[in-house]
TrEMBL record:
PROSITE patterns per the UniProt record, alphabetical: CYT_DCMP_DEAMINASES_1, CYT_DCMP_DEAMINASES_2
Name under which the protein is recorded: tRNA-specific adenosine deaminase
Keyword Metal-binding: yes
Keywords from the UniProt entry: Hydrolase, Metal-binding, Zinc
GO MF terms held by the record: guanosine deaminase activity; zinc ion binding
Species the sequence originates in: Coprobacter secundus subsp. similis
Pfam family, one: dCMP_cyt_deam_1
One GO BP: purine nucleoside catabolic process
Length: 156
């Protein structure tokens, strides 16, 4: 029976291997019933995918393996405190718990600063550094109305 420290050591080992293999210093594993069911490494630069963070990669693998979009009953061990994107992905995938090793400040100290995104979330869209503008809401709302009335929808 593996313990929490062993799961985290696996996430850390992935992060160390990933640095050796040209990726960012981040690794994650997802555990279900005391067993690692998915592993993820940061492959942003290696695969030219800005969303390929370790946690998102592990979530994709776990969901594929289990054949579900709902990962309740699973826990994630990540070598670093999740960024806002990964935190959102973890909430959407309904994981039960997050364990992390390095924290946001440790990441910031080596050039991975995500505090600007947390800061942006506090602001109204019109006040953020990234401009955003609403267009064609009256046309887009049709899909929402269809969804709302759909009898056989798969809710998530
Ligand atoms: Zn992330």
């Amino acid at each position: 029976m593996m313990k929490k420290d062993d799961f985290m050591r696996e996430a850390i080992a992935i992060s160390i291997d990933n640095v050796k293999n040209g990726g960012g210093p981040f690794g994650a594993v997802i555990v279900k019933d005391n067993e690692i069911i998915a592993r993820g490494a940061n492959r942003v630069t290696a695969s030219n995918d800005p969303t390929a963070h370790a946690e998102v990669s592990a979530i994709r693998e776990a969901a594929k393996k289990l054949g579900t979009f709902n990962l309740s009953g699973c826990e994630i061990y990540t070598s670093c405190e999740p960024c806002p994107m990964c935190l959102g992905a973890i909430y959407w995938s309904r994981l039960d718990k997050i364990y992390y090793a390095n924290n946001k400040v440790d990441a910031k100290n080596i050039g991975f600063d995500d505090s600007f995104i947390y800061d942006e979330l506090e602001l109204k869209p019109s006040e953020r550094h990234l401009p955003s503008e609403s267009l064609l809401r009256t046309e887009a709302i049709k899909a929402f109305e269809m969804w709302d009335k759909k009898a056989d929808k798969i809710e998530y």
